[in-house]
Amino acid sequence: MRLKVTVAALAGAIALAASGCGSASGSSGGDDGGTLRYAAVPSEQNIDPTAEYGDIIKLIEKDTGKKVRFVRSTDYNAVIEGMVSGKIDIAEFGPLSYVLAKNNGAKITPIGSMVEKGQPPTYQSYGIVPKNSPITDISGFKGKKVCFVDPSSTSGYLFPTAALQGAGIDPKTGVTPVMAGGHDNSVLSVASGKCDAGFAENAMVDTILPGKGKLKPGQVRVVWKSAPIPQSPVAMRDTLPADVRSRLVQVFTKDAQKDRMVQLGICPDTGHCQVTSDAAIWGFAPVSDSTFDTVRKVCAATKNENCAKA
């Protein structure tokens, strides 16, 4: 089954980019106009991409000699379809959205996956509840209003649905599902009591929202953790010129490390460097398509209809 694509969301994302959400203006023809279009699936709904992605955009421009335009989207499918249609040149995916893009015909190659300093390139999904909730484990989610992130989210939907099924709960009928749109919205909806329980990536609970003062200590409780998940990759379009592709490999396997970015003059010190919207991410590690076979196995186990090839 082909993934249902939100064409309106893609059009809106491109319109936002054209109206000034990029680091530079340029032709709409991708590499033909000397401009690379860079997009990211939305981990957070309420961020300024020109600030969060400013450093990595400067690095890409420095290493490739191309202008970079950040294509902002609030929809996972818009980024997937942008890669499928060739309207996006470089994309930061979640593991599942990368697999879905490949399954739906995107001619792309993963370059690097995010890593925290000294840590393996993996992360986790958390199942969370409000601090005063009587729920103590994932079996307590049955019959509750549960926040997910997006059907194309790995830690915000795919791995959680596998966990619910393992607990004997149908993720579509055994709970009242709510798609929050971003990991931040899912966490904050649980914290405020709008959802009885929810799922999100561990960093959103542990560091990102607390670091921004949006989540107070103890405001939510973690009652379930997934097995390690391959970290989010950046992928590039295979039809980009060979020299541009080789320079992008240089960016995401060698130069996109906070200490290296300081050496290159991209940012003043590692405390003020960002390679993605999560400030805890130190850089990227080389990655291959087979890295995401774990995700494909969970797709098969959950019989997720979106995972089927077009």
TrEMBL record:
<dbReference type="InterPro" id="IPR005770">
    <property type="entry name" value="PhnD"/>
</dbReference>
<comment type="similarity">
    <text>Belongs to the phosphate/phosphite/phosphonate binding protein family.</text>
</comment>
<feature type="signal peptide">
    <location>
        <begin position="1"/>
        <end position="24"/>
    </location>
</feature>
<keyword id="KW-0732">Signal</keyword>
<protein>
    <submittedName>
        <fullName>Phosphate/phosphite/phosphonate ABC transporter substrate-binding protein</fullName>
    </submittedName>
</protein>
<dbReference type="Pfam" id="PF12974">
    <property type="entry name" value="Phosphonate-bd"/>
</dbReference>
